[in-house]
Amino acid sequence: MAKPTTTAPTKSKFFRVAVEGATTDGRVINRAFIEQMAANFDPQVYGARIWVEHLRSTWADGAFKAYGDVTAVKAEEVELGGVKKLALYAQISPTPELVAMNKARQKIYTSIEINPKFSDTGEAYLVGLAVTDSPASLGTEVLSFATKNTGNLFTVAEETTLEFEEILQPETEGIKLSDTLKNLLKRFSTKTTSDDARFTELNDTVETLATHAIYSADQFTTEKTRIDALEAALKQTTEDFAAFKQHVESTDANPTHRPAATGGDGMAETDF
């Protein structure tokens, strides 16, 4: 029998990622940018991936690997402080690691990366989404990254409430099993077939149920192992990022400073 699918992909509900206004580097996201991003975004043309602090890793298992993709965006008006502004909302397809981080209340702020003149369109396009722990700003790491990507805009991070839901998949295996049981009950409720034939079908159905139960148990064990591995990976990623952040914060911002002298006892020597 075909093996049933036990893991459904996940998507988020639409959530706000940007509002027309100031960005981290002083430049402004105007209303037209929001409108253009909502109208132009197409994952088939250029996909916007999800990063930690906008930082990219060259390694698939690195601390700054991608944590999912933006699947859709839309623009809606919101009222903030009595003023109506146009906001950009996004829907994402997260990795299990991002879902786990969100459940642990880690990286609950989001910021977007905008190319104001994308490709040959000359219009704004959403090229990236970042998750961060820093409200209202993205810290020195991202500002350093932004200086190397002067053409793009990085929005001020704002708190995000992510709600995830499973993408419904056709339950073909369950339907087949259900239909088999229904047909079997119908045969036992009538005398259109012989007892031998009905008991043969009963035996076949019991074997099918047993096989399904064994496979379900195996899948449960497999999923538990996978979840344990994801939790370990998340812990390692968190530790790696903390170490990296500590290193950046402890690095001298002005490397031209002369290091302090380490030798001598402070006594001046005089020749006689």
Salient structural properties:
272 residues, alpha+beta, 2 domains, 5 helices, 12 strands, 37% helix
Can you describe what's shown?
This protein is an alpha+beta fold and 272 residues long. It folds into two domains: 10-166, no CATH class; 172-250. It contains five helices and twelve strands. The protein has helices spanning 31-40, 96-103, 139-148, 172-188, 195-250; strands spanning 10-12, 15-19, 21-22, 28-29, 49-52, 68-80, 83-94, 109-118, 123-132, 153-154, 158-159, 164-166. The strands form four sheets. Strands 5, 8, 9, 10 and 11 form a five-stranded mixed sheet that branches. Strand 3 (21-22) and strand 4 (28-29) form a beta hairpin. The longest helix has 56 residues, at 195-250. The radius of gyration is 28 Å and the shape is extended. Residues 1-7 and 137-147 have low confidence and may be disordered.
